[in-house]
Amino acid sequence: MKADVEPRPGAASLKEAGEVLLSVEGVSLSFGGVRALRDVSFDIRKGEIRAIIGPNGAGKTSMLNVINGFYHPQQGVITFKGKRRHDMRPYLAASQGIARTFQNVALFKGMSTLDNIMTGRTLKMRRGILAQAIYWGVSQREEIRHREAVEHIIDFLEIKHIRKTPVGKLPYGLQKRVELGRALATEPDLLLLDEPMAGMNLEEKQDMSRFILTVNDTFSTTIALIEHDMGVVMDLSDRVVVLDYGQKIADGRPDEVQKDQKVIDAYLGIPH
Amino acid sequence: MEVFGQVLEVLIGGLLSGVLYSLVALGFVLIFKASGVFNFAQGAMVLLAGLALVRSLDFLAARGAPVWAAVILGLVFAGVIMAVTAWLVERFVLGPLVNQDGLTLFMSTIGATFVLEGASQMIFGSDVYPLRLFPTDAWFLFESVFPGGILVNKLDVWGGLIAGVLVAGLAIFFQSTKTGRALRAVADDHAAAQSVGIPISWIWFVVWLVAGLVALVAATVWGTKLGVQFSITFLALKALPVLIIGGFTSVPGAIVGGLIVGAGEKLAEVYLGPHMGGGIEYWFAYVLALAVLLVRPQGLFGERLIERI
Fold first, then answer.
1. Which end of chain B is more exposed for a tag (fewer CB within 10 A), N or C?
2. DSSP per-residue codes, A23-75
3. What domains are there in chain A, each with its CATH number?
């Protein structure tokens, strides 16, 4: 982790004018006849928390899958760190600094919390397969060095007590936290969170909000999150993009979006 | 005393040959644990590794290479062949099946089995090739205690030693290296593994390479015992009851399962055989496996699967 990075003074003003980290332009994605995304464009600025909201089936998760390369859109351009691409690939996305969590927790269930988070260090570890096969020497030293970084994350997320527990046995709220830890271990520039608070109680939500804000402040990690809890979205995010039936219907500050008639219609339905 | 000596001899012989079953079963467990794929092709890979080794040894010996050089070169050659096989399997069989169900992957390994069996015999020949890497004579132990002593096959002891070293080495590799962790991660969840930048195709290559090298080790021992020939692929069938008894997901399970099968079938052959008309050795392991399936479906050491409904 970039633990030595101080919280930047005037972070808020920087976000206002911040440079664009990622932008999607005219992205369309369809599966056979189902049009999951239609001509969606928006950008994510460096250092901000960007929320993606919308009713069920609006295409939010599809959007994240396009950004980290699981889906390849039929049309559109994705620009990340100034590089324009037609689509991303999962390995490319990860190596360029995009990490993510999943809607239905995707952890390695048979492995311990520690090992799960250690997998996040995969791209940071440079020793070749031969050194690993011999293990003693350079490979062991590298393990220990990265283990330290992982222990910092474990401390930060307050999951010390479950370090050695197989994650399959953990309650849902803690699994979500381990998943966040694994994403953080990659030291991402852009962190995609797919419903980080789904199925959590109030206390767990507060904890998770605190972690997200701290990650954003302290490590200046840019975050894009999908969330259904409007209270959380309004509190956390700097800007919100709203999707409905695969189309962007609103984009702006939380208070603006909240008042937008199209958004209210999408959520509450229009009387016929 | 004489009866006790005989029981001991049968038991030791059985346990040691059981270790050799474990050696083959180990190849299955490794791939299954590491990639969630039940690799039906493991037997075919033992054949391929054995043929590559024995044919290159013959080739070098015929050209007057010293024995030690021939053995080293032969092992390297066979290792390279297994690496090429791993690459081909990843590229053309598993690669296109990322994010597919475990059963689909299993079916594809059945296809790979036939291709490997056919190709290896086409390239290297289909005769019985004798392999002499380990001593095949026997020791007679405790001759002062038991009349005639206890016969122990040197080859079986070698097999046991090799299996032990192999298991210890692989345990460290899988538990505490980046690649070992990545292997287990890929077995659990393809998408999540990709999201942290684990290159799945590389991992699958490594899995098949490791399985290929384990097959090569098994081939050196079994080839010395039986000669390298097509029937060596049937070892895969013998490994099945070992896996069922020990549990598919457990390395110690493969070892203990092998010991139980080895000792069980030898004891049954010697002591039940005369009463049942003999030939017990051939089916005893399967009956034992069936019994285990009824009582403890996950095997002795397997992880119990709890499905949330």
1. C
2. EEEEEEEEETTEEEEEEEEEEEETT-EEEEE-STTSSHHHHHHHHTTSS--SE
3. 1-97+187-272 (3.40.50.300), 110-185 (no CATH)
CB contact under 8 A, A91 and B178: no
What would the pLDDT profile of B54-96 be if each residue is shown by its tens digit?
Answer: 999 989 988 888 888 888 999 999 999 999 999 998 889 888 8
B184·A115 Cβ contact <8 A: yes
**Is B149 contained in some domain?**
yes
At A98 the three-state DSSP class reads: strand
ipTM of this complex: 0.78
CA distance A138 to B141: 45
The Cα of A36 is separated from the nearest Cα of chain B by a number of Å equal to 20
Q: Which domain holds residue B128?
A: 2-229
| Burial bucket for residue A165 (CB in 10 Å: 0-12, 13-18, 19+) | middle
**Is A185 at the interface with chain B, CB within 8 A?**
yes
Q: How many domains does chain B have?
A: 1
CB contact under 8 A, A107 and B189: yes
Q: What is the pLDDT of residues B143-181, one digit of tens each?
A: 777 777 777 888 888 888 888 888 788 878 877 788 888
Domain contains B250: no
Residues of A in contact with B303 (CB under 8 A): 110
Which residues from B are below 8 Å from A132, CB to CB?
Answer: 173, 177-180
Residue B46 included in any domain: yes
Q: Which pairing describes strands A83-85 and A75-80: parallel, antiparallel, or unpaired?
A: antiparallel
